[in-house]
Design brief:
four-stranded antiparallel β-sheet; alpha+beta; three-stranded antiparallel β-sheet
């Protein structure tokens, strides 16, 4: 039995509502073709000056414009075609992956397979613009709070750079040569980047981490118990631990035999009798933990040894109903659910208790989750303001950009 998890990653919200079948037809401009396209671009003619019609562009992909051409302004900061194209290519590839994953055919950039409100082209463009705005938002927040990279950040960035050079352009020996640096810069160009953009993207990641720690402490430690309690109240959080003896096979989901179920029922009754025979609360709580560690068959126990924090709809109904009826530190009677037999103990909300496990199976606390959500909301406010105030040159906005021409659909 496991609690439904909520992703913690501070990432952009894709404007998607995917449904359908078959496979994707959107093609991306591959890095392998960039050199040839760049060689075919002979002059400033390949770029579209402000006010011109993007449909007149004959060169495709990254080479449609000069990498240093200014295509817009976000938060008072110029956006080059190189940065814009990096994110356009990223999200074009990403929606292609999502479409393939969901078995969806993308019939064209002007179609609405990805969203009921935006065309496929607008989905890509809006997400690219939002990514740029989010990075500018981190810059703005860092400036507002006086956050700058320190020596440790710069040392780590240099270490990451050395490692990247050795990994992507070197021989993996841990040593970086001038030839490998030159090869790495060539590799970056194949990823539609240069060293300035590479350093900028990395810098923002460190500023983002520094901002989080400054505002909320390491692992969200600055979130107070009062804030935890308020969040729990607002979101209807409950906390409980349980001893579970299963009546189904955890690997197949098939029911155990009648004889096996009877044995489980007898065992859970014995455990319940042991617990209810203890009058001292502290002793009962200690015994509960001992018995839980020894007997529970909950597959989530390895991740949540101190119990679950959850809200309505995240657990099976019988479990939630039982917890709602209990006072803190009160023991339930034996509860039967589709998983099996439970003995449930309601416990107080603890900000330092495990609240979830991420995709890498690393656990995080409720306090940390609240800090992340609070920071995400703050960053979204700044991102929205940056995006709303952005100015995109003709040929680069959602209404004027020729995605089909650039990405060869």
């Amino acid at each position: 039995m496991t609690k439904k998890l909520t992703a913690l990653a501070l990432c952009l919200c894709m404007i998607l509502s995917i449904a359908g079948c078959s496979s994707s037809k959107i093609e991306t401009y591959s890095g392998d073709d960039e050199a040839a396209a760049t060689e075919a671009t002979t002059a400033p003619d390949a770029s579209v000056p402000d006010g011109s019609d993007a449909e007149e562009v004959t060169a495709l992909g990254y080479a449609a414009f000069d990498g240093d051409e200014i295509v817009g302004t976000v938060n008072g900061s110029d956006v080059t075609w190189r940065e814009y194209y990096y994110w356009l290519n990223y999200y074009t590839s990403y929606v292609e992956y999502l479409a393939s994953y969901y078995g969806l055919t993308l019939s064209g950039w002007d179609s609405y397979e990805l969203s009921s409100s935006y065309t496929n082209a607008e989905v890509v463009i809006l997400n690219a613009q939002s990514a740029i705005a989010q990075y500018r938002a981190v810059e703005a927040l860092a400036e507002e709070y006086g956050i700058a990279l320190d020596e440790e950040d710069e040392a780590e960035m240099e270490s990451v750079y050395q490692s990247d050079v050795d990994t992507y352009a070197g021989d993996g020996d841990g040593e970086v040569t001038d030839e490998e640096i030159a090869a790495f810069e060539e590799y970056l160009s194949e990823q539609f980047m240069d060293m300035d953009l590479y350093n900028y993207l990395n810098m923002i990641q460190y500023l983002d981490e520094d901002l989080f720690i400054y505002l909320y402490g390491e692992d969200g430690s600055a979130i107070t118990d009062e804030e935890v309690a308020a969040y729990a109240e607002e979101n209807g959080l409950m906390a409980a631990k349980h001893i579970l003896l299963m009546t189904v096979d955890s690997s197949t989901g098939e029911a155990l035999t009648d004889e096996e179920i009877a044995e489980q029922e007898a065992t859970i009754q014995e455990l319940y009798d042991q617990l209810t025979a203890v009058e001292d609360q502290e002793e009962m709580l200690a015994l509960f933990d001992e018995l839980m560690a020894e007997y529970t068959e909950d597959t989530g126990y390895v991740y949540y040894p101190d119990g679950y924090i959850f809200t309505d709809g995240e657990m099976v109904e019988e479990f939630e109903d039982a917890v709602e009826a209990l006072e803190e530190y009160q023991l339930s009677e034996i509860v039967e659910s589709s998983y099996g037999y439970h003995i449930i103990l309601r416990i107080p909300i603890d900000g330092d208790a495990i609240y979830g496990v991420n995709s890498s199976y690393v656990s995080y606390t409720l306090r940390y989750y609240i800090a992340n959500e609070t920071f995400s909301n703050l960053l979204n406010e700044y991102t929205t303001a940056a995006q709303d105030g952005a100015v995109w040159n003709d040929g680069f906005g959602t209404d004027t950009m020729d995605i089909a021409g650039i990405f060869e659909l």
